[in-house]
Amino acid sequence: MMMFVGDSFTVGSGPVRTWQTYASESARQLGWQPVIAGAGGTGFVNEGRVGRTFEQSFMAELAWRPAPDLLVISGGHNDSRWPAATVRQAAARLVWSVKAHWPGTRIVMVGPIWIDRAPPSAYLLRDALAEVAARERVAFLDPLARRWIEGRRSEVLLPDGVHPTLGGHHKLARWLAGALQTTSAPA
């Protein structure tokens, strides 16, 4: 089983529903059942409209379930207004919480996703999350290192200029599924 905790990119937004997101699609591509937790607007620190962080979503929606083979923690986009040090601490607490509940579960952290150009704060967050992943010996995947728009912007980006279209989610899913097949936790 493959579980995710994340934000609107992970759970879906606009016309893209949860079962159509990159999270669901990447799990399908790998032949796994997805279980997806989180909510739009949330982050490691940011509580969004639902009033909870990724760690709180993990505790409420996932921690009580049997341990999955893989947990993907994906996000940071909504934390861009918070200091990187604060996000780093919250991300570490989440990883510690996951390891305490499910010591044998493989954890992969996916950094913040920006389909178009990311602001400088996104790179600071990415670096903070990559540092946590390295220190905690979990794999880190960097969506900011990829170019997502290769044709018409509208093929991968919704009119809000933030969220991926269904085509954008399919592109993210192909990338994530491929990366998960070749990525392991640091030694």
TrEMBL record:
Residues 4-170 form the SGNH hydrolase-type esterase domain. SUPFAM superfamilies: SGNH hydrolase (SSF52266). It holds the Pfam family Lipase_GDSL_2. It comes from the Bacteria. This is Lysophospholipase L1-like esterase. It comes from Nonomuraea dietziae.
